[in-house]
């Protein structure tokens, strides 16, 4: 027993070291950009189109770029430069601000946006875009009116749908929200048939399948999800072999859910974002290999990145 316990402890210990070393290059790059190059040097080195501000949905995302002691001491409400990317011939700077979604109060976001604007001026960026629900919260509090992020997301998602759908009808989950309405408009502008579905849930979180539109019939469809990966499995009983699934929501469905779709003969995809020509460091997690749609630079040559849900 003693030997087994020692081996298990050693495995966990060396596993922790391996994970720490894997994150080290990103963290060192973060320190070099902020402590050596500084924002005014970046302004001299590159002409910046976009300042893209991200925040951690969970601590593991923050760990990919920064040390915890640094976040707690220096980064609350203050954006630090986290990386560079180039897309469609233009440069973007990704900045990291340490504020969690449950801390999105009017006071915190007002301070944060003031500091974001100061950084934008220092680096000479033309535009600001923010990740996740931050733009919507800022707009609700009257801090910022710009909806640049949702416009870019709508165009990007429409391109992804056209790349995948063949002749499939598009079922849009979350089409009644602000982003969903713009996505719907963009798809219909391009001649794509769309049915908006937002099925209500009962007190136990179960979907009311009786509200599934009868007009869908037996034709194959592409289910476009904007509502969150956790809810997708509720729609599995309504899908058939040959249908397609495109998830744009964060987080992406877990592997167990993705395998259920595959076992039913449904091809599932996750929209990573937009393809960059250069990106350092890579965006973590579900965004690896792309720039999130809300940080993309809008252009006619915009190219989307889509991956299989099981890859």
């Amino acid at each position: 027993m003693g030997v087994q316990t020692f081996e298990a402890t050693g495995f966990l210990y060396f596993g922790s070291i391996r994970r720490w070393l894997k994150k080290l290059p990103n963290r060192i790059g973060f320190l070099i950009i902020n402590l050596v190059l500084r924002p005014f040097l970046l302004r001299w080195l590159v002409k910046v189109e976009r300042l893209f501000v991200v925040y951690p949905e969970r601590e593991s995302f923050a760990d990919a770029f920064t040390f915890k002691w640094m976040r707690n001491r220096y980064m609350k409400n203050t954006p630090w430069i986290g990386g560079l990317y180039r897309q469609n011939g233009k440069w973007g700077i990704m900045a990291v601000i340490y504020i969690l979604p449950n801390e999105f109060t009017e006071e915190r976001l007002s301070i944060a946006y003031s500091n974001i604007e100061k950084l934008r001026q220092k680096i000479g960026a033309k535009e600001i875009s923010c990740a996740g629900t931050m733009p919507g919260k800022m707009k609700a509090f009257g801090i910022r009116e710009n909806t640049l992020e949702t416009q870019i997301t709508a165009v990007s998602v429409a391109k992804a749908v056209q790349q995948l759908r063949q002749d499939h009808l598009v079922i849009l989950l979350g089409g009644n929200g602000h982003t969903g309405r713009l996505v719907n408009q963009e798809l219909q502008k391009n001649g794509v048939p769309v049915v908006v579905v937002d099925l209500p849930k009962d007190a136990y979180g179960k979907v009311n399948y009786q509200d599934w539109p009868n007009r869908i019939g037996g034709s194959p469809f592409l289910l476009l999800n904007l509502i969150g990966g956790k809810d997708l499995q509720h729609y599995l009983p309504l899908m058939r072999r040959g249908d397609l699934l495109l998830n744009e929501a964060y987080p992406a469905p877990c592997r167990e859910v993705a395998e259920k779709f595959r076992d039913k003969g449904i091809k599932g995809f996750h929209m990573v974002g937009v393809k960059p020509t250069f990106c350092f460091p890579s965006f973590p997690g579900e965004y690896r290999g792309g720039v999130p749609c809300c940080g993309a630079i809008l252009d006619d040559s915009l190219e989307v990145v889509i991956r299989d849900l099981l890859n």
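Residues 155 and 186 are 7 Å apart (CA to CA). The two ends are 38 Å apart (CA to CA).
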